[in-house]
């Protein structure tokens, strides 16, 4: 039986198969389900979503949804904690190697004698290297700009480089978060640049990236961006280019509206927040990933709770899953044209 479940139902409690979903939901609504009705879904027993009724072994009783959610969130928390531990070790090692690199003229040197990886320490060195790359650029610049609404100072900082590139007919493509669409400064910048710049947006993007002519890339080397890496190693640059192109294909042009969620009263941003909540992320993490403030994030969560009729975070998680908001916007199959909100009196979500 265990082997059959592993082969036919390769999933966890966070992504039940359709048959498992039906049987478990029925068990929750009715309080129990006949054992023979669960023969086709051994995954429910293996995942401890159903267990024998001690009063009658012909019946199976469900584990409470709240207990299942707690178990899932505990697993996510353990994974995040472990990842943070590994990330901390990697950052410490990186800082150590970067410290050694400052004593060398270059970390490595290509056949032409140009540094394949250079650590740029300080804003003045970063600006100088960016200006040098801009002057040498003749074809294309690709950028990823994380965060939310772009500050005027950020836009002004690189404006002289953008104008110079436009004057030489260089093509520019920029990726932003959806939140950046609401910044008037960005809209003014794009109007100024005209056809020289094509911009698209996503719910989330990677950290800042600038690629010149597919030969040199700049990425941050610390959290406050006072250090950067200048990358000229062909394999590294090609990898970053591939990442950019895949994000670009998923992104939505700034000239096009964001898709509707298909659920009345829930915006595209709230759908993104709901998906991240379903993954177990805290408010501060969600806010950072979407480029909004924690206060704004919590206001959206409050509206989600009100719209879905949830009185607690646990209940909100159940309602999010019921209406299919536990998947990122655009992920998986297309959303239906209209989705009914769950019956707030349903015993399965009390």
Task: Based on the model shown, name its key terms.
disordered C terminus, Sig_transdc_resp-reg_C-effctor, LuxR C-terminal-related transcriptional regulator, 8-stranded mixed β-sheet, alpha+beta, 13 helices, 350 residues
Describe this structure in words.
Residues 327-350 are annotated as: Disordered. 46% of the residues lie in helices and 15% in strands. It is α+β, with helices and mostly antiparallel strands and 350 residues long. The chain has an 8-stranded mixed sheet with strand order 4-10-9-8-5-6-7-11, sandwiched between helices. Helix 10 packs across helix 12 and helix 11 crosses helix 12 (294-308). The longest helix is centred in the first third of the chain and has 37 residues, at 65-101. It starts with a helix and ends in a 28-residue tail after the last helix.
- Indicate the low-confidence ranges by residue numbers: 1-7, 105-113, 331-340, 344-350
| SSE succession | HHEHEEHEHEHHEHEEEEHEHHHH
Question: Taking strands numbered 1, 2, ... along the chain, how are they ordered across the largest sheet?
Answer: 4-10-9-8-5-6-7-11
Number of strands: 11
Termini Cα gap: 33 Å
- Strand coverage percent: 15-25%
Shape: elongated
Helicity range? 40-55%
Report Rg: 25 Å
Overall SS class: alpha+beta
Mind summarizing the main beta sheet?
8 strands, mixed
Mean pLDDT value: 79
The tally of helices reads: 13
């Amino acid at each position: 039986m265990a082997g059959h479940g592993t082969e036919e139902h390769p999933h966890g409690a966070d992504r039940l198969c359709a048959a498992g979903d039906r049987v478990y939901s029925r068990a929750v609504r009715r309080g129990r389900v006949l054992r023979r009705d669960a023969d086709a879904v051994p995954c429910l027993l293996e995942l401890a979503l159903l267990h024998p009724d001690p009063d009658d072994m012909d019946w199976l009783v469900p584990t409470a949804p709240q207990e299942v959610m707690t178990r899932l969130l505990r697993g996510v928390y353990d994974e995040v904690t472990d990842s943070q531990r590994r990330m901390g070790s990697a950052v410490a090692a990186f800082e150590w190697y970067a410290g050694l690199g400052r004593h060398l003229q270059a970390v490595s040197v290509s056949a032409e004698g140009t540094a394949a990886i250079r650590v740029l320490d300080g804003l003045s060195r970063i600006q100088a290297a960016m200006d040098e790359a801009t002057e040498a650029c003749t074809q294309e610049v690709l950028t990823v700009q994380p965060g939310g609404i772009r500050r005027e100072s950020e836009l002004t900082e690189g404006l002289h480089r953008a104008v110079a590139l436009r004057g030489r007919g260089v093509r520019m493509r920029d990726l932003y978060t959806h939140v950046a669409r609401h910044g008037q400064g960005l809209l003014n910048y794009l109007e100024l640049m005209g056809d020289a710049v094509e911009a698209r947006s996503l719910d989330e993007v990677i950290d800042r990236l600038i690629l010149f002519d597919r030969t040199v890339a700049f990425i941050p080397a610390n959290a406050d961006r006072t250090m950067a890496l200048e990358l000229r190693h062909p394999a590294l640059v090609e990898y970053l280019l591939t990442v950019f192109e895949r994000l670009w294909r998923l992104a939505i042009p700034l000239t096009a509206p964001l898709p509707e969620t298909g659920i009345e009263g829930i915006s595209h941003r709230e759908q993104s927040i709901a998906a991240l909540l379903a993954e177990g992320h805290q408010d501060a993490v969600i806010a950072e990933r979407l480029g909004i403030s924690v206060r704004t994030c919590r206001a959206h969560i409050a509206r989600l709770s009100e719209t879905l009729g949830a009185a607690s975070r646990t209940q909100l998680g159940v309602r999010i899953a019921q209406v299919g908001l536990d998947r990122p916007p655009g992920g998986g199959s297309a959303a239906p044209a209209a989705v009914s909100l769950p019956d707030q009196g349903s015993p399965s979500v009390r």
